[in-house]
Design goal:
By secondary structure, the protein is of the alpha+beta class. The chain is globular, with a radius of gyration of 19 Å. Helix content is about 45%, strand content about 20%. The chain is built from 9 helices and 8 strands. The strands form 2 sheets. It has a 6-stranded antiparallel sheet, sandwiched between helices. It folds into 2 domains: about 60 residues, Winged helix-like DNA-binding domain superfamily/Winged helix DNA-binding domain (Arc Repressor Mutant, subunit A, Orthogonal Bundle), CATH 1.10.10; about 180 residues, GAF domain (Beta-Lactamase, 2-Layer Sandwich), CATH 3.30.450. GO terms for molecular function: DNA binding; DNA-binding transcription factor activity. It comes from Paramicrobacterium humi. This is DNA-binding transcriptional regulator, IclR family.
Length: about 260
């Protein structure tokens, strides 16, 4: 028998957030109230408070609610803890041994990616993506792989105008429409690429690591010198490592090449 919470508002708030996390897109407040058997007035009040703190966003035209940036930062905070690093490190080491290129594991942190595992291949170029380094998500293959898995309104909320974009090498998206085109292409081909946007002369291929409800918990990427490798030659092996890490963190089997559409 379930134990009744002595803090009903906190209990209801967590239930609402958990419910939204399981959905494939924004839902109406009435649907939330009905699904969780909560008073509609209470749900509206909770949503307003969570919106003020960034945990949910309201889409007025659709009259629906979805997870906000703060909720994804919580997810990223979980991903940065040791379990994900410990589970991912041997998989990255295997990639380095097999491909002879450096590999890394990153999580989303607001508009950036945060690198939590870095496996360097011997005699390969120096990388800026060391453990603890943050880089702009729209420029990095790791970031693009994860952003492509987020619903469109979540990406739009992260990058509302040109001021949200960062330039490192004079290439890469500078506005939302350009980022959207990149993410749509990532969705179409099933993996993300970068080509000199982080560091001139270096390219990367990245694949998202999904949690038990299909949200991007992290991403794995391999970096190599431009012109020395073809992305298509790397995708299958990187995708297999990402699928295996997804299985390890969620217990859910995902096939290499599963669709990326949110």
């Amino acid at each position: 028998m379930a134990v009744e919470s002595k803090v009903p508002a906190a209990d209801a708030s967590l239930r609402v957030l958990s419910y939204l996390a399981r959905q494939r897109g924004p839902v109406a407040a009435a649907t939330i109230a009905r699904s969780l058997d909560l008073p509609r007035s209470s749900v509206y009040q909770l949503l307003r408070v969570m919106r003020q703190h960034g945990y949910v966003v309201h889409l007025p035209e659709e009259r629906r609610w979805g997870l906000g940036v703060a909720a994804f930062e919580l997810s990223g905070g979980y991903a940065r803890h040791e379990p994900l690093s410990l589970l991912g490190r041997p998989l990255l080491a295997g990639l380095v041994d097999e491909l002879g290129e450096s590999a890394h594991l990153a999580v989303l942190h607001g508009r950036d990616v945060l690198y939590i595992v870095e496996e360097r291949a011997p005699r390969r170029p120096h990388l800026v993506s060391d453990v603890g380094v943050r880089l702009p998500a729209p420029l990095a293959a790791t970031g693009r792989a994860m952003l492509a898995r987020l619903p469109r309104h979540q990406v739009r909320a992260l990058f509302p105008d040109r001021s949200a974009f960062v330039d490192r090498t004079g290439t890469g998206p500078t506005r939302y429409s350009e980022l959207r085109s990149l993410l749509d292409e990532t969705t179409r081909v099933g993996h993300a690429t970068e080509d000199g946007e982080i560091t001139r002369g270096l390219a990367s291929v990245g694949v998202a690591v999904l949690d038990h409800v299909g949200w991007p918990a992290a991403s794995i990427a391999v970096t190599f010198e431009q012109g020395t490798r073809e992305a298509d030659d790397l995708v299958e092996r990187i995708g297999a490592a990402a699928a295996e890490l997804s299985r390890r963190i969620s217990g859910r089997t995902r096939r290499v090449g599963d669709g990326l559409s949110p």
